[in-house]
Amino acid sequence: MFGENALIPNDSRPRSKLVNKKILIDVIGLELIALVMVIGYKLSPMLLPKVDLTVQPDPVCNLQRETCSVNLPSGGNVRLAMGTRPVPLVKPFEVQVVTSDFSPARVEVDFAGIDMNMGLNRPQLTARGKGRYAAEVTLPVCITGHMDWQATVLIETGRERVAIPYRFSTGEHH
Hints:
By secondary structure, the protein is α+β, with helices and mostly antiparallel strands. The chain has 2 domains: 4-47; 53-170, Macroglobulin (MG2) domain (Immunoglobulin-like, Sandwich), CATH 2.60.40. 20% of the residues lie in helices and 33% in strands. A hairpin with a 4-residue loop joins strand 8 (147-156) and strand 9.
C-alpha cells in the first residue's frame, strides 16, 4: 500500500487538461505571430514602396522658398512646390507636382520625419490637367518646434516607379 506506486496519482486527467490548455495557448500565440508577419509582409509595399529609380534633386533647392525641379534620366521633368511658404504645421496646405514630357499613372508625396517617426502621411495627388497634380496635406507638429522632413515624390510612369526625395525643415530653424 505504501510502495513505489503510492506517490503516483491514480487519476492523471487534471494534469493532462492543464498540459492541453498550455499547448493550445502556445499554438494560438504562434498563429497570432504568423498572422502579424503575413499582414506586415502584405502591407510592406504600402509602408515602404518599392521603386525602380531614385533621382536625387539639387540639395541646394529649398522647398520653404522655391519650387524645386529635377530632370529624369529617362526624359521628362518633375517640379515640386508647397502651396504655402513657409510650410505650416497643423494647418492644411496644398502640395503641387508638375510633370512635363511624360504622363504619370500615379503621383504621391510621402512626408516622413527624418529624426522622428510622425506616422504615415502619403497623399495621392489628383490630376488637375496639363501635367499638374495636387493634394491637401497637414503636417503634424513636433514638440520641439523644429522638424526636419523628407518629402519623397513617388511617380508611377507605367514603365517604372520613380522616387525623388526632397528635404526641408519646419519650425524655428528653417
